[in-house]
Design goal:
alpha/beta; TIM Barrel; three-stranded parallel sheet; 9 strands
């Protein structure tokens, strides 16, 4: 029996009005930041593996933040994919994808959200069973108008656009039938995280979550 490489992922992403994409530098910020985002209505969190503290941050959030659905981001190789699963991630996000990652994902419990930016890349991932994909970098690759053009020839694919999306641009993506959720970082700006302004981040999260209903 072939393993579904995205088991449970659609259910998780449907709970995400927007997925906050976070680069967390300090472990002490991880739990209060995640709590603020979850409290603000954004329970699905992507912690990118771009810092030395990332995996420890993931472990802390998984164990201490009730209601958080935690994933890793910027997964570039098999080692990071396996480390993400070991840290307790429900899903892993890659900006693109490689044959090695696709092969390894078949043997891991963690769900993979691989990235595509062209019709050919999207079709290749679909052949491997990936009906859910990250569209990255979204704005730089053509934005909502480009994704709209893919909805007719590739209706089987649902995308999570990420990259360059702002609150002003988000509604244009949510109108598309092939967008399941968005990824963004504006609700957790570095300055507010550094200053520990968790209530302000919670407010920004609430505003971001409301964008899906407009």
């Amino acid at each position: 029996m072939t393993k579904n490489p995205q088991k449970g992922l659609e259910t998780a992403l449907l709970k995400a009005p927007i997925v906050p994409v976070m680069v967390i530098e300090n472990l002490k910020d991880a739990v209060p930041l995640a709590r603020a985002l979850v409290k603000g209505g954004l329970p699905v969190l992507e912690i990118t593996l771009r810092t030395a503290a990332a995996l420890e941050c993931i472990k802390a959030i998984v164990s201490e933040v009730e209601g958080a659905i935690v994933g890793s981001g910027t997964v570039l190789d098999v080692k990071q994919l396996k480390a993400s699963e070991k840290a307790g991630c429900v899903f892993a996000v890659s900006p693109g994808c490689t044959d090695k990652i696709l092969k390894a994902a078949k043997d891991q419990k963690i769900s993979l959200l691989p990235g595509s930016a062209t019709a050919s890349e999207a079709m290749k991932l679909l052949e491997h069973g990936y009906g859910l994909q990250k569209f990255f970098p979204a704005e730089q690759s053509g934005g909502a108008s480009y994704l709209a053009s893919l909805s007719s020839p590739l209706p089987q694919i649902k995308f999570c656009p990420t990259g360059g999306i702002t609150p002003a641009l988000a509604p244009s993506y949510f109108k598309l039938p092939n967008v399941i959720t968005l990824g963004g970082s504006w609700m957790a700006p570095k300055a507010l995280v550094a200053e520990g302004k968790w209530e302000e981040i919670e407010r920004l999260a609430r505003e971001a979550a409301a964008l899906r209903q407009r």
